[in-house]
Amino acid sequence: MIKKHRHLDLQFMMMLHPNLLVMQPMKKTPKYIWVPRLASESILKKTSRDDESLRRWKEQLLGSVDAAQVEEVQEPDVKILSLTIVSPDRPDIVLEIPNTGNPKAPWFTLKEGSKYNLKFSVKVSNDIVCGLKYTNHVWKKGLKVDNSKEMLGTFSPQPEPYTHVMPEEVTPSGFLARGNYTAKTKFVDDDNKCYLELNYTFDIQKDWAK
């Protein structure tokens, strides 16, 4: 993403965006281009607290977070609270994320040939997280059978968890599809920082688990 700033002077832009690059073309009007990154709380804290327009801008970016309370640079803290399997064939299956280690095997059972969605509950604290992504790799008997990636988005910190619903999928069916699967799930941001990595197993059977 490239943005042009026509109404802010260069000194103010450099204060807000240390990564700002100034390019002087043939025309007299300079163009200001910066690396695509949302302003963080630590940067916003440096701006004047007495400026009403800046105060409104801070609130728009940070939501309910009070930038005046930020005393030092803090990294975003992202916690994946739960994973829910949503299917029209049965009540929701809520899977709590283990505090330590990986889920016990098998973590869940899916019915063959059934439609379902995955729903995530995500809590973001401290600072904005940019480009949060979900990746999932699935193997059966050592052979990779699925590889998926979903961009969840950019989130500002707030007290309430965010909810993200994945596109609908259909489980495979038939004798060859039934059995045990191994999977690895990761949540990473644009800087490739990993907030959660899970290794687990699940089953596909003729019917849902009782």
Give a quick set of tags describing it.
mainly beta, five-stranded antiparallel β-sheet, Coagulation Factor XIII, Chain A, domain 1, Rho GDP-dissociation inhibitor activity, 210 residues, cytoplasm, Putative rho protein GDP-dissociation inhibitor, Immunoglobulin E-set, RhoGDI_dom_sf, Ig_E-set, 3 helices
Characterise this structure.
- Strands 3, 4, 6, 9 and 10 form a five-stranded antiparallel beta sheet that branches.
- The chain contains three helices and twelve strands.
- The longest helix is centred in the N-terminal third of the chain and has 11 residues, at 52-62.
- The chain has 210 residues and is mainly beta.
- The protein has helices at 10-16, 41-44, 52-62; strands spanning 21-23, 31-33, 77-87, 90-96, 109-111, 115-125, 129-140, 143-155, 162-165, 169-170, 179-188, 194-205.
- The chain folds into two domains: 10-69, no CATH class; 77-205, Coagulation Factor XIII, subunit A, domain 1 (Coagulation Factor XIII, Chain A, domain 1, Distorted Sandwich), CATH 2.70.50.30.
- Strand 1 (21-23) and strand 2 (31-33) form a beta hairpin.
Order of helices and strands: HEEHHEEEEEEEEEE
**Unreliable runs, pLDDT <50, ≥5 residues?**
1-14, 16-39
Into which percentage range does the β-strand content fall?
35-45%
Tally of separate helices: 3
CATH architecture of the largest domain: Distorted Sandwich
N/C terminus separation = 49 Å
C-alpha Rg, in Å? 22 Å
Apparent shape: elongated
> What is the level 1 CATH name of the largest domain?
Mainly Beta
What fold name stands as the CATH topology of the largest domain?
Coagulation Factor XIII, Chain A, domain 1
| Derived structural class | mainly beta
On the 0 to 100 scale, the average pLDDT is 78
Helix content: 10-25%
The H-level CATH homologous superfamily of the largest domain, spelled out, is: Coagulation Factor XIII, subunit A, domain 1
- The tally of strands reads 12
The main β sheet shows up as: 5 strands, antiparallel
* Overall structural domain count: 2
InterPro entries: Ig_E-set (IPR014756), Rho_GDI (IPR000406), RhoGDI_dom_sf (IPR024792)
GO cellular component, one term: cytosol
Protein name: Putative rho protein GDP-dissociation inhibitor, Immunoglobulin E-set
Organism: Helianthus annuus
